[in-house]
Specification:
The complex is a heterodimer of chains A (253) and B (219).
Chain A: E1 4-13, E2 16-26, E3 31-35, H1 42-49, E4 57-62, E5 65-66, H2 80-89, E6 90-93, H3 105-115, H4 121-134, H5 150-162, E7 168-172, H6 180-195, E8 199-203, H7 207-213, E9 216-221, E10 224-229, H8 231-237, H9 241-252
Parallel strand pairs in A: 3-8, 3-9, 6-7, 7-8
Antiparallel strand pairs in A: 1-2, 1-4, 4-5, 9-10
Chain B: H1 2-40, H2 45-60, H3 63-81, H4 89-114, H5 118-126, H6 131-161, H7 173-184, H8 188-214
Helix pairs in contact in B: 1-4, 1-7, 1-8, 2-4, 3-4, 4-6, 5-6, 6-8, 7-8
The chains are: A alpha/beta (253), B mainly alpha (219).
Chain lengths: 253, 219
Amino acid sequence: MPILKVSHVKKSFGSLDVLKDISFELNAGEVLSIIGPSGSGKSTLLRCITQLETIDGGEVQVDGKDLVIPGSNPVKYSPAKVLRDIRLSTGLVFQNFNLFPHLTVLQNLTIAPVRVLGISREQARETGRRLLKRMGLEGKEKSYPCELSGGQQQRVSIARALAMNPKVLFFDEPTSALDPELTGEILKVIKKLAEEKMTMVIVTHEMAFARDVADKVIFMDGGVVVEQGTPEHVFRESGNERLASFLSRFSQS
Amino acid sequence: MSDLSSLLPILWGGFCTTLAIFGLTLLFSIPLGLLIAVLKMSKWRLVRYPVSFYISVMRGTPLLLQIVAIYFGSYYLSEYSGIGFSFDRFPAVIVAFSINYAAYFAEIFRGGIQSVSKGQYEAAYMLGMTRSQTFFRIILPQVVKRVVPASANEVITLVKDTSLAQVIAVTELFALAKKQQAAYASIYPLFVAGVFYYVANLLLSAVFAYLERKLNYYK
């Protein structure tokens, strides 16, 4: 059974249809890359699944739990308890980190496990330190986010999401706010997570990365999934014209 | 100089009243201001509009008038309608100052709250935090840092505004200094009162400078 199932999802802002019938599935341990031009709806799709936006049609299932009541039209969201469970099983890494600036690095990692999950402070700290080590941030636990580089901040925010032990981790253009020389360190961390079989959905403009790290790639344009499949299929075999022109624009720049 | 030694104890007594008005006003107006700020950002118009009206009246009319209105207003209300109760002078001053300063603080706090980026709310939401956890643990601490400079202005103004309490014959520092002015037939007591205000504000400025430095550990 897929851990994430999106079927016929629709979303509009006023008269603008941002998502027009999006469907895909993802199994546990797989990595999905979502690519496509700006304004194609990639980020909105992510924000809909993570409940930062509401959907206007279709269904989403995370780890067997329904985000909206199946078959409801207009869509009716599941009870708050279910939505909360879904939220706790999904983690999101933002484009601009959104770390809590008034808290130290370690406090950023422990506040939610302690306050939301009720884990003991000592245990949360221990987990936090272990995660920082995994992210190559030993010795930074007492620093404040403003004292770190962009790449380090993004690694903290990945650690913060991992501290909640999510079933699926979403990345919304995790390297777009970083200087080019800093993107590498983030991509390396994500690759390592992929090797550890973390289930991830990554919206990205890094084409080579999308191809290398993903088990599955989705190309979106104009609010629809134009092409989806293995990286091999999407990047090499697909004869789709919109995809070809998108990819050629990328190889030029 | 024998003048000063007899003048100082008198003025000190008034200064204590001034400090009481100052302290109690802050004690009530800051939490009230925070509440009003939150209400003004309500998504319900039925809440937002009355709050906006209240703020505009508090900021748009003299505090002097508000003190008079609270004191005499409550007096006439209880006198002629038989309902309600009338304030004594000192409580009337505290009520008037508190609701007036709450309006100013509310606008400062609202500005502070709205300057925190949406991303902070979203990050807290994604981590499963409740709305009150998000507000008190994530948003409010950042708001405090942002509102300190503007609040310092208000607090310093409040020290001087306490002299308005004399309009309903509360014997605070300035009222007593004026009485002594008549007794001494000199404006000298007024200048001494001025020194009291100045020194108090010097200390407050130092406290706020310290606070700002303390809160400077993050950007």
